[in-house]
Amino acid sequence: MGTVNTFIAVRGKGIVVREPSIVTLHKKTKKLLAIGGEAKKMLGKTPANLLIIRPLKDGVISDYDTTLAMLSHFVKKIHDVPGRKLSIPRPRIVIGIPSQCSEVERRALLDVAIASGAREAYLVEEPMVAAIGAGLPVSEPVGSMIVDIGGGTSEIAVISLSGIVVGRSLKLAGDAMDAEIISYLRSRYGLAIGEKTAEEVKIGLGSVLPMETEKEMVVRGRDLEKGLPKSIRLSSVQIREALAATINTIVGAIKDTVHDAPPELASDIAERGIVLAGGGAQLYGLPKLISAETKMPVSVADEPLSCVVKGCAILLENNELLKKVKIAKTE
Question: pTM value?
Answer without folding.
Answer: 0.91
